[in-house]
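Study this fold:
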Amino acid sequence: MGLFEGKKGLIVGVANDRSIAWAIARTIMEEGGECGFTYLPDREDDEKQKNRRRVEKCTRDYPEQTKFLVPMNVADDENIKQAINKTVEEFGKIDFLLHSVAFADRDDLSRDTIETSREGFKMAMEISAYSLIAIANAAKGIFNENGSIAAMTYYGGEKCVPGYNVMGICKAALEASVRYLSHDLGPQGIRVNAVSAGPLKTLAGSAAGVGPMLQMYEHMAPLARNITHEEVGRTGAFLLSDFSDGITGEILHIDGGYNIMGHPGRLLDKLETE
């Protein structure tokens, strides 16, 4: 019997088969769980429906576990409500919800944080942080006992990571939201946590220039290697499962131990030999 046998939930934020959200969802479905998926609404003039098709491509090998696909614009409360209504229509109640949504304007990411535009800041914060609050509020009444919400964050929300810029501020807000939501939802038996993953070759990571970071993590992390999608998938699934039923309000790092380092470690040795 799989870890998620008989469990049902909503996955928010799969963009393609390299998404961290997909790695987590795939682990859940391989352990017997049933999932509904949201996707970024396609433009009306996009006849190919690229966003929906990317998610369909991911889920085609799991026809029994994939119960529905529904568009969700996290900046639109009515659209969020429609997606939650679809979830209730298909599942009744759910056991888990994964939030893996973040966005900032490329121009704002490419310049120093101090030069972030007002509109760009508002948009990045609304999509990357407030959306967790909005979705949790819309879904709070549809959880079974011992429900779980997990969000995706990054070390740039704790420390300054040059180049991460306004997104680091958004992740800091997201992590604070996890703690406050865990307090609000705790009496209902709903846990709220976040996974802080090290760099991976995802669509967002590639756009942020993840290559040099992968090299740095490999030399600095205590495990002396980078993490994998499969490892993040298992970690996210753990936080959404009954195996973590005493954990809430936590930010769980999966980065080979990079976050504990206060010194360049083996990276310094490498630089000294070059």
Summary: The chain has a mean pLDDT of 94. Residues 231 and 252 are 13 Å apart (CA to CA).
